[in-house]
Amino acid sequence: MAKHRLTSTPKTHYLARVILGTTIALSGGVIAAPAFADTPEQTSVTVQNASADTAKTSLQTAAERLPKVTAQQILDIASRQIGVSENAQGGGTKFQSWYMSTERARETTARDGGRIQDYANAPWCAMFVSWVGEQAGIRPTMGWDAYTVTHAKWFKENGHWGTAPKPGAVVYFDWQGSKDIDGIDHVGFVKQDNGNGTITTIEGNTGNGKVEQRVRPTSQVVGYGYPVYS
After folding, report:
1. pTM for the whole thing?
2. By 3-state DSSP, what share of the chain in percent is helix, strand and coil, each rounded to 5?
3. Cα–Cα distance between 125 and 139 in angstroms, integer?
4. Residue 170: in which H helix or E strand, if any?
5. For the chain, which residues score pLDDT lower than 50?
């Protein structure tokens, strides 16, 4: 199976679509939730903040039973992976191996078809994000999937989606510059908003087949998912 680079070729997530399909359910962990940027001027966030007169989201409720993790701790875990590289076949990373060992891989192959082994050389940017959440113990509020579109829809349908590039947010890209979730090509973490129309990110499965720190234009951002941080 040919490897597609998720930072160099438009619509390279089509391979993931073939393998993983387009169903939008994302379950697992302790969540029982629904199935499942933008220019600097766009700063709206759809996360519902818990208060005396505002109901908590399902992710905020789930977070009460999880370790208290900050955005910086997530970024530290992600940063320690910088330099991890895939093999010549586009596989061989611990992120792919981990995902293949999980119940989630069995759920997504049952959902989308294919075989668990197909993940061995599949694009792994979403697996990297999922792995970081697992390492921090906050998988139920980070989500886990191998398909970027499905993962983004999960954040949106759980009320944790918006257009503000907050540190630790999960950032979704469309290299064509659309704001359509179905057009998402790639995913990573926001490290910082540079205030000049760019963000600094930490991403897996970059054009060099590695975990890398990058600077990306916000014009290529579809939106941001917000895990629950303390």
Report:
1. 0.79
2. 35, 15, 50
3. 16
4. strand 170-173
5. 1-44, 46, 48-53
